[in-house]
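thought: fold this chain, then report.
action: predict
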Amino acid sequence: MKDDRPIILCIDDDRRILMILTKILSQLDVVCYTTTSASEGLRMAQEIQPKIAILDLIMPEMSGWEVLERLRAETTQEDMHVIIVTAKDSSLEPTLAANIARVDGFLTKPVSATEVLHCVQDLLSKKPNPIEKGNGAVAASIREADSA
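observation:
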């Protein structure tokens, strides 16, 4: 029997954040997968086809922006929502995320359970905009702005 619950993939190099997200998301009727590795997250996304990906921006292996770019280029899941979670304190990041990278949510650490639940429930209830493939120029622009 197939499990029709929405799948959420959390990618963050901090295991404590993944534990917190897992505990928060356990309040919803979803299946939650986690990984501390960006490359493993990309592999998992191909395999499990998540409805929502929650990405940390700052990871040692590759940035969340790079993961986002590769998800868009490599995944076959065209209706996946993306939520960015970061400890970075920049008022520009949410604007870049929403308007340039077209992510669906932006949360600053430490995340609150209420914010996570509200964002995820909102995304699960709406039809997503298809992820545009091959948008490397946009991701490169974001990385440049991020490093400035």
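thought: worth noting. The first strand starts at residue 7 and ends at 11.
final: tokens above.
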